[in-house]
Amino acid sequence: MRARFVDAAEAILAEVGEHGISARLVAQRAELKTQLLYYYFRTMDDLLLAVVQRVNERRMVRFEAALAEPEPLRALWEMMSDPSNAALAAELSAVAHHREAVRDEIVSAAREFRTAQTRAVEALLPVDAATPSAGGIVMIAASLARMLVSETALGLTEGHADALLIVEEMLQRLKPR
Prior knowledge:
Elements: H1 2-15, H2 23-30, H3 34-40, H4 44-67, H5 72-80, H6 86-98, H7 100-124, H8 134-154, H9 160-173
């Protein structure tokens, strides 16, 4: 039943957004009673934290799978630029602006993930003086991927093809060890 509530909250966030979520609506979507929601989650923050934790767990599974690919740098880029979770990520960021506990969890998990990404990219990069820093590459790739997904959703694609060409050139140049 706990998972049904988390499923429902996640779906509502992705479809309707943070302003559309309520205990009543989550319970209705889960086809369970609102009182039961508060049995499993003391507060709505607790439910939202469970959604964040689930999203983070899925992200780590995809990250590990990307690292196991024959071209892990390309797989990491594809993971970052995958638009399938963009709406949910945007709504969780919006929730974080209003709910301190959720913000703290998102920031903590993001720091851990950024560290894991940086270490992985560092291990994959060729060792030479001309190779940019792994932390910089991760930051630029994450920012560019987020912007491409966000702008594409709005219908703004000017410059995207050029940016993607640069990414492709970098992926070719930074063949893993």
